[in-house]
Amino acid sequence: MTESGNQRLQCQLRYPVKGVYTTRDSQQELTRELEDLLPNAESITVLPVVQGFSVDLEIKDITPFNRVSFEPYIADHVLADAVRIHCEGDEDVQIQLLKASFF
To answer: How many structural domains is the chain composed of?
Structure first.
């Protein structure tokens, strides 16, 4: 299945980020960093959970990426770098995709 070049593809992603200490400052800084890095985000929600954060992203346009390349880019680069810069934790920080919806 191919996607039309002029059709916007939106997505919702949910990641648990485990192995970081949750503070109000790190939550706010992580949220601000993701807002800066993801200008096409309609919504960014970072909530504290046991041993980390839950990060929900709603992106209104994933261009220039496609379904296959977008999620790994977010997890391996955008989110990983933002967590590394703004969160303290143990050496075993884990970022896993919990949910992905494209529409």
So the answer is: 1
